[in-house]
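User: Earlier you gave me the apo prediction for this protein. Now I'd like the version with calcium ion bound, so I can compare the two side by side. Same sequence as before, with the ligand SMILES added.
Assistant: Got it. Here's the input I'm using:
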Amino acid sequence: MRPLRFFLPVLILGAGVCTAAGAQDYVGVGMSLNTFFSPSGQPFRAPAGQPYPIVKWFEQADTDKDGKISHDEFVNDATAFFNKLDVNHDGYINSPENSTYENDVAPEIQRTDPRIRQPKNYVAQSDADSGGGDTDPTAGRYQKQVIGASQYGLIDEPQPIRAADSNLDFRVKIDEWVNASNQRFTILDRNEDGFITLDELPKTPAQIAGEAPAPDAKKSKAKNENGKKKRFGGY
Ligand SMILES: [Ca+2]
Ligand SMILES: [Ca+2]
Ligand SMILES: [Ca+2]
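And here is the structure of the complex with calcium ion:
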């Protein structure tokens, strides 16, 4: 299978956000870890303490309510989101419509949530004082960061709309969208039975971060174990 492509500017944007400011600058500005992005990039949000909103997407896509998402249901759900983004209904998501997606529909993709765990040796590369890189055989090599929609999604695609633009003409035709949706279904149907079920889906990075112990609890635990304060993740 040909891998879906990502646009370099999105990667650069994500890296800049991560390194240009401290963690606290991005917490509390409307970013919630209880956020899920469907494989098409549609955001679903739930208040803290409520079930992770993957269930909202699943209920939306599973139109016959049999507890599993068929290939047709998956593509229909993706196409419905395409039609929402294709505001002028010309069969393309063009640049202005994509900008509306990035700025208004899914603004989370422009920020990197510092609570989401990043590959360890990215930290070693960017902050030599953080330690831990010397013993890692991959230290110093580029490790792909978890950015954009990948923070909240099941597939590592920082910008799911642009990723579907296979001929790189800065617009996504419905045919390209259906092709991307077919690929996404194949990735997610891990047991290849033609259906997506909740129990075969991975946890998203945001979901994992949301379920992790609070930072204060981690710090005090580390202090107790090591007898001194320890830095976590370079933040
Ligand atoms: Ca179904
Ligand atoms: Ca359009
Ligand atoms: Ca399956």
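For your comparison, keep in mind: The longest helix spans residues 71-85.
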